[in-house]
Amino acid sequence: MNPTPRDYNKANVLDVVLAHAPLTRNKLIELTALSKATVSRAVEELRSDGFVVDGGVDAVAGRGRPSTYLDVPETAGHVVGVGFGAVTTGVLVTDLRGREIGHVIVPTAEHHDVPAAGRWLVDLIAQTSAPARGPLRQVVVALPAHVRDGAEVFRPADPMKIFSGRDLQRAVEQLLDAPVTFDSDANASLLQVLTDDASIHNAALFSVSSTLNFATCRDQELARGRTPAFGDIGSLSSGIDDRTLNGLLSTAGLVRFARDHGLDVERVEDLWLTSQDHRARAEILKAFTTAVTTAVSIVAVTLDPESVYFVGRLRPLVDEVLPDVRKRLEQTLPAIPRITTVSQVLGLSVARGAMHASLAMTHNRLRDALLKARSQGPRHEQAAPAF
């Protein structure tokens, strides 16, 4: 049977409760633009389904009866966001309205086969989710790679080449017996930026860490291509000899470039510690500035973003060269976007962006399930959600 207007009203009430709880009935009526009777009926049905509970009393209700807050119970389920990096892995678990249940940040273990990596990730998720109540609704794993269709991994960071393809996603999904989606760390980072600042509409983001990754949005919607070539800006020329952008805007690539130019560095962080008067460091910084300028120029003339963000381990170096980058861009472009860096908590910030993706997917799936699962008989009180 097709959904009725009553079903759609109930779905709209569920959307608002999931997005804005805890909230009063009056606020719910205001946000849905539905009548008091319609909202009351939908709330009682959602209460029976296990998605709404009373969450306390408004202490500043004014005259008349105090307003009771409506909330989403923990038993409605939980979601997981994972930042699976080449160096650090973070797992964040929240309930369906984004309240944290637990998180963990650990060094990424070295894996030589996909099944072992899948078991390791699933064990981390299980440990972090142990206090959660209700079903696991969605897992999103963000990693330094290009991802197509939420499952197929292309061009990951060098230490993670073994995870190319679909095998890791399949392994994790089978072990968890829950929906699992893979995405790029750049998409997760940009989603976190959009969540923090709702005024941003059109933006681009470069994740400059183990590998160069790129994300962009239009009208706050992340752009996703049809082929693995979309967003693979790292394969383009940096403007320095035969180096690609990934060869200068990734940690491994920049370390190789530094060594080729006589700078003895073991890890990229050594570049911040090297004397600024060091001749080799000056050459490296000049090349890095050119690469950043090239990357921003590409997106400025093709995507016209309002803002361009840089995140990742190379962020301190981007901060150092940004004044020169802006000067160069002003000489070549009629207008330049706002360029800024975003500080992140290693391992956790990407996981937080992945968690927001998990919540959005879960909310959409619950809405669809509600519209497809019309109740044909009398309702019964239950402790667990009905769908």
From TrEMBL:
Pfam families: HTH_24 (PF13412), ROK (PF00480). It comes from the Bacteria. SUPFAM superfamilies: Actin-like ATPase domain, Winged helix' DNA-binding domain. InterPro entries: ATPase_NBD, ROK, WH-like_DNA-bd_sf, WH_DNA-bd_sf. Belongs to the ROK (NagC/XylR) family. This is ROK family transcriptional regulator.
